[in-house]
């Protein structure tokens, strides 16, 4: 990004979620709860343990892809051209 520095760049998936409207801890806790109910996270895991802070932007990008993949696998029902999100 032009003019940005590493200090302002997100270093975790939790920080990336801020750009998508998940800015409060309550919203992030709710997402973590849904992920536990869907079986993405175990009772001993947290969102931040599954997706920790990353110094390498490539690893952060892989975390983002993993998050999308896991939510698609566990939160959607796909039949034909329809897609429905469920937990």
Helix content: 40-55%
Strand content: 5-15%
| SSE pattern, N- to C-terminal | HHHHEE
Based on Cα principal axes, name the global outline.
globular
Largest sheet: 2 strands, antiparallel
What distance separates the N and C termini? 36 Å
Q: Give the integer mean of the pLDDT values.
A: 84
Tally of separate helices: 4
pLDDT < 50 runs, ≥5 residues? none
Task: Please indicate the count of domains.
Answer: 1
Spatially, the strands of the biggest sheet line up as 1-2
Strand runs, count: 2
Structural class: mainly alpha
Rg over CA atoms, rounded to whole Å, is: 14 Å
Quick structural summary:
The chain has helices spanning 13-17, 25-37, 47-50, 57-75; strands at 76-79, 82-85. The chain has 87 residues and is mainly alpha-helical.
Explain what you see.
- This protein is mostly helical and 87 residues long.
- It has one domain (13-85).
- Helix content is 47%, strand content 9%.
- It has helices spanning 13-17, 25-37, 47-50, 57-75; strands spanning 76-79, 82-85.
- The chain has a two-stranded antiparallel sheet with strand order 1-2.
- The radius of gyration is 14 Å and the shape is globular.
- The N and C termini lie far apart (36 Å).
- The relative contact order is 0.15.
- The model has no long low-confidence stretch (mean pLDDT 84).
């Amino acid at each position: 990004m032009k003019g940005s520095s590493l200090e302002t760049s997100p270093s975790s998936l939790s920080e990336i979620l801020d750009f998508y409207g998940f800015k409060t801890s309550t919203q992030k806790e709710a997402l973590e709860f849904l992920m536990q109910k869907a079986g993405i996270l175990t009772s001993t895991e947290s969102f931040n343990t599954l997706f920790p802070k990353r110094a390498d932007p490539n690893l952060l990008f892989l975390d983002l892809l993993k998050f999308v993949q896991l939510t698609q696998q566990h939160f959607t029902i796909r039949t034909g051209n329809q897609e429905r999100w469920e937990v």
